[in-house]
Amino acid sequence: MIDSSAFQGKKAAYYTLGCKLNFSETSTFGKMLEDMGVITAKKGENADICLINTCSVTEVADHKCRQAIHRMVRQNPGAFVIVTGCYAQLESENVSKIEGVDLVLGANEKANLIQYLSDAWAQKFAVENGLPTNGEAQELSDSALHQHHSVKTKEIRTFQPSCSRGNRTRYFLKVQDGCNYYCTYCTIPFARGNSRNPSIESLVAQCEQAAAEGGKEIVITGVNIGDFGQTTHERFLDLVKAMDKVEGIKRYRISSLEPDLCDDDLIAYCAESRAFMPHFHIPLQSGSDEVLKLMHRRYDKALFAHKVNLIKEKMPDAFIGVDVMVGCRGETPECFEECYEFLKSLPVTQLHVFPYSERPGTAALKIPYVVDEKEKKMRSKRLLELSDQKTQEFYAQYIGTEAEVLFEKAPRGKAMHGFTKNYVRVELSPAFAKEEYDNQLIKVRLGDFNHDKTALKAELVDSL
Length: 464
Hints:
Residues 165-393 form the Radical SAM core domain. This protein has helices at 20-35, 59-75, 86-90, 92-96, 113-128, 135-147, 188-192, 200-212, 236-243, 264-272, 289-295, 301-314, 333-345, 373-396, and strands at residues 11-16, 39-40, 49-54, 80-85, 101-105, 163-164, 171-174, 217-221, 251-254, 279-285, 319-326, 350-355, 402-408, 416-419, 425-428, 441-449, 456-463.
C-alpha cells in the first residue's frame, strides 16, 4: 500500500540522458510524483528525491551517466536517489554500488516506480530512525536494487505509458518500446527488451487528453516505432490514421522511423493528412551496403534512396533528418567515402552524426577491422560540415516566405524559438516576443539567418 502523505511537500530533482523517449518517460515519472504531493525543486534547492534516467547507447553515454549520478548525490546530500533507464538495466550491479544510490529500477521495475519508491522510502526511514523494518518491503527493495540485472531480454514485458510535455510546449507520446532487430553494434534490445506496444484505442485516448490540456503538437516516440503492432497485431499506419482524427491536435511529428518500416502507403498518407507534418527522421547508419550487412541492417542503399526520394516527391518541402554512424568496425576508408558521396547525393536536410562505440556483448566485436579514434573524429567532422551545408541550403529556400510557427516559452528578455511545419527553426527577437505566444501558432515572415545560423529570424504577420 502506498502512503502518499509521506511525500507531501517533498522536493524532487530530475536528470535525463539520451533520447526523446527517455525525456518523455522522465516527464511521466515527474507527473506521478506530483500526484503524490511532490514538487519540483528549483535551481539551487536541495532535493529530497533525485531521479536519474540513464542512457547506454555509447561508452560516452555510460560515462555521462556515472558522472550525473555522482553529481546528483553530491549536490543533494541525504536525498533518496533513484536510477532507472538503459544504463540502470545493463549495469544494475555497478550502479547499485555507487554511494548514495537507494533504488535501481530496470525495464520491468520502472513501470511500478511509485510502489518501489514508497516501500524503499519507508524502509530507509525505519532504518535511519531505529524503527522496526518491514521485511516484505526490504525484500521488494532488494529485488529492485539487485536482481533485475539477471532478467533476460524476452522477460522484459512491461510497458510504461507516457504522454507528457514536462516544461516543453510539445507533447511526447510513447507508442512503442523495445526492439527485435538486434543490430550488431547495439545494446538497446538488451536494455529495453523486445518490441511491444499498447492499443491504438489507448493511444488515441492519450492524444485526446493532451488536446483537452491545450496541447497542439505531439511527437510520436518509441525505440522502433515502425514496428508498432507486435503486441496488439495492429499497424503503425492505422495508428497514424486514428491519431489524425483527434480534434485539437494541430501537428504530429514522427520521430525516428526505420527505412524498411517507412511504408510507401504511410508516406502517401502523411502527404495528404490533416495534421502529420512534412518532417521525417530516418536512420541510415551507413551509406555502404557492405557495412550495412555487417551491421545486420534490414535494407540497402537503394531502398533508403527510394524512401527519401518518395518523401520529396510527395512532400517537396519535407525536412528529412538522418542518423549516420562513423568508424564502426568494418568501415574501411573506401566504405566511408562511399557513404559520404551517397549522403551528398541525397536531398536530405540534416545529419545526426555519432562515432561508433564498442559495446560489451555485441556481435560487432567479432568484426576484425577497427577504425582508430583520430580517424573517427575526422570522418565525423566531414559529415557534420556536410550536414551544416545541407541544413543551411534547406533553410535558405524559405527566406522571404510566410509560415506558421508554434512558439515555445522563453525566459523573459530572451528570444523566442519555434518551428515551422517542416521543422525550420525560427527566432523571434525579444522586442516582439510575448509570454502569450507560448504554445500558439503564429504567422510570421521568415527573414535571414540569426547570428549562429541555427535559425531564421522572424517578423510577425498576425496570430491565428
